[in-house]
């Protein structure tokens, strides 16, 4: 039976390797981290162009910095919970297309990912609305049977009901899992095409 290493063993091995890291390896790690910082600045709107910024860097480190940029951008390709996350994801996709030199296959993959994310938001909103209506109707029916119906102008807020919250958590988790799986497949192809 294969031995499973503990987290502590893995941390200790990594620390030992880092202690033995050459100056070149340390320089490469710093370059990768710089790429990630530049990607964060790009996503925050502090940089207009990643490619232009990359050209200003030491040619010997440009590939490693580019890999750090791609890694930083890929982390922002996720299911958005709000409009700000959606905008960051769109900007990340734009950055990946820019770093690929405008390659048509990368642009097509990013466009398909944008389509998936748009479908996710639509599907999520539709399911939430349906569940709200279903729970509201169930509670109104139950209250009507008990003779405790609220006045006609009073509306029952379904989202405050525990049943709604429990069911919505289950549905949202399931939906997110399905869409995350599709998103991860596209991200894997992107990584292969971008050489990361």
Q: What labels describe this entry?
A:
196 residues; 7 helices
- SSE order, one letter for each helix or strand: HHHHHHH
> How big a fraction of the residues is strand?
under 5%
Structural class: mainly alpha
Average the pLDDT over all residues and give the rounded result: 84
Task: Tell how many strands the DSSP assignment holds.
Answer: 0
Basic shape: elongated
Q: Helicity range of the residues?
A: over 70%
Number of helices: 7
Poorly predicted spans = none
Largest sheet geometry:
none
- Using the CA coordinates, give the radius of gyration: 24 Å
Q: What distance separates the N and C termini?
A: 33 Å
- Number of individual domains: 2
What does this entry show, briefly?
This protein has 196 residues and is mostly helical. Helices cover 74% and strands 0% of the residues. The protein has two domains: 1-75, no CATH class; 101-196.
């Amino acid at each position: 039976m294969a031995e499973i290493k503990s987290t502590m063993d893995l941390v200790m091995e990594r620390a030992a390797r880092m202690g033995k890291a050459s100056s070149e390896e340390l320089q490469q790690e710093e370059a990768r981290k710089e790429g990630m910082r530049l990607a964060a600045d790009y996503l925050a709107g502090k940089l207009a162009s990643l490619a232009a910024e990359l050209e200003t860097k030491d040619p010997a480190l440009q590939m490693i910095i580019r890999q750090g940029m791609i890694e930083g951008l890929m982390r922002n390709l996720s299911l958005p919970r709000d409009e700000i996350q959606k905008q960051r994801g769109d900007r990340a996709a734009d950055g990946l297309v820019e770093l690929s030199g405008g390659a048509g296959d990368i642009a097509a993959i990013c466009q398909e990912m944008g389509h998936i994310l748009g479908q996710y938001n639509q599907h999520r909103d539709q399911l939430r609305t349906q569940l709200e209506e279903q729970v509201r109707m169930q509670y109104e029916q139950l209250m009507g049977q008990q003779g405790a119906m609220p006045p006609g102008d009073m509306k029952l807020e379904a989202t405050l009901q525990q049943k709604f919250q429990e069911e919505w958590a289950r549905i949202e988790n399931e939906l997110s899992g399905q869409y995350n799986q599709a998103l991860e497949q596209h991200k894997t192809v992107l990584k292969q095409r971008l050489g990361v």
